[in-house]
């Protein structure tokens, strides 16, 4: 699936509702997962993705037609979409799941996004997908790569800088890699996953928050996209790590050696 980008580009930004990054995570009483009865917000890496989409449009005003936010989740996920709309997205799509449904796995999310993109071809298609490199709840970091594979599109992961060359219908993306940076050129359409140093997301102003309430949010069901969100991975048990034991001080190297011997460490 490789549509030819039109002069006016359409950007899709998948976002996820996750436990707020400032919340102390606790395992629930049944040990089936973490306690979700806490504050939620947009996944921080997805905030960066929304911000980057808005900045690209500010830079290429006459060449970017629309920015659309996309999420999959329970009814409360619409709050996450409203945040994206307040930041500058034009419209949003909510694939609604039951409140009790488990969090969708990366492959099913990628399939849902691919299906939605396929349905948009008659309306100009999608030229760029920008999403966070990972979500802070499961830290899997797989959705962007799977989506690019399913679509047959080029991808640039862990992006710390994105520059569009609309004349050549390509992008120059700087990627975070071990020990430095890497620059890659990617033809449109493409998938980009965002890293922390790409930008600093803006705060939504009160007027924009009010405007966001009037922006359109399309509601879809899983069957509309032909995707089954039933998990294929079974979580057997979730438990907290053992509590750290306080350390001690020694007065000399000899005392340190004796302490190590007491704990079973021997000199080589």
From TrEMBL:
Needed cofactors: FAD; AMP
Molecular-function GO term, any one: electron transfer activity
UniProt keyword Electron transport, yes or no: yes
SMART domains: ETF
Entry-linked InterPro entries: ET-Flavoprotein_bsu_CS, ETF_a/b_N, ETF_b, ETF_beta_N, Rossmann-like_a/b/a_fold
A Gene Ontology biological process term: fatty acid beta-oxidation using acyl-CoA dehydrogenase
Details of cofactor binding: Binds 1 FAD per dimer.
Keyword Electron transport on entry: yes
Oligomeric and partner information: Heterodimer of an alpha and a beta subunit.
Predominant localisation class: mitochondrion
Superkingdom per UniProt: Eukaryota
Pfam name, any one: ETF
Entry keyword set: Electron transport, Mitochondrion, Transport
Record localization: Mitochondrion matrix
Family, similarity comment: Belongs to the ETF beta-subunit/FixA family.
PANTHER family: ELECTRON TRANSFER FLAVOPROTEIN BETA-SUBUNIT (PTHR21294), ELECTRON TRANSFER FLAVOPROTEIN SUBUNIT BETA (PTHR21294:SF8)
Function: The electron transfer flavoprotein serves as a specific electron acceptor for several dehydrogenases, including five acyl-CoA dehydrogenases, glutaryl-CoA and sarcosine dehydrogenase. It transfers the electrons to the main mitochondrial respiratory chain via ETF-ubiquinone oxidoreductase (ETF dehydrogenase).
Example of a GO cellular component annotation carried by this entry: mitochondrial matrix
Positions of the Electron transfer flavoprotein alpha/beta-subunit N-terminal domain: 32-229
Protein known as: Probable electron transfer flavoprotein subunit beta
């Amino acid at each position: 699936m490789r549509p030819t980008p039109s002069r006016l580009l359409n950007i899709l930004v998948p976002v996820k509702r996750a436990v707020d990054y400032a919340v102390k995570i606790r395992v629930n009483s049944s040990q089936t997962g973490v306690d979700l009865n806490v504050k939620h917000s947009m996944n921080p890496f997805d905030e960066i993705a929304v911000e980057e989409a808005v900045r690209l449009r500010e830079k290429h005003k006459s060449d970017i037609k629309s920015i659309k936010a996309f999420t999959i989740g329970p009814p409360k996920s619409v709050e996450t979409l409203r945040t994206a709309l307040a930041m500058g997205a034009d419209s949003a799509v909510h694939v609604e799941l039951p409140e009790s449904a488990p969090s969708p796995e990366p492959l099913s999310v990628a399939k849902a996004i691919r299906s939605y993109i396929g349905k948009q071809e008659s309306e100009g298609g999608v030229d760029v997908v920008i999403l966070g490199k990972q979500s802070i709840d499961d830290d899997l970091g797989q959705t962007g790569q799977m989506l690019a594979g399913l679509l047959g599109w080029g991808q640039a992961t862990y992006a710390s800088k994105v520059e569009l060359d609309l004349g050549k219908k390509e992008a120059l993306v700087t990627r975070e890699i071990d020990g430095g940076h890497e620059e890659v050129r990617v033809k449109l359409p493409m998938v980009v996953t965002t890293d922390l140093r790409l930008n600093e997301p803006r705060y939504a102003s009160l007027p924009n928050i009010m405007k966001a309430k009037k922006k359109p949010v399309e509601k879809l069901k899983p069957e509309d996209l032909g995707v089954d969100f039933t998990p294929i991975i079974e979580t057997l048990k979730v438990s907290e790590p053992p509590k750290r034991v306080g350390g001690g001080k020694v007065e000399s190297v000899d005392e340190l050696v004796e302490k190590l011997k007491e704990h079973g460490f021997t000199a080589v």
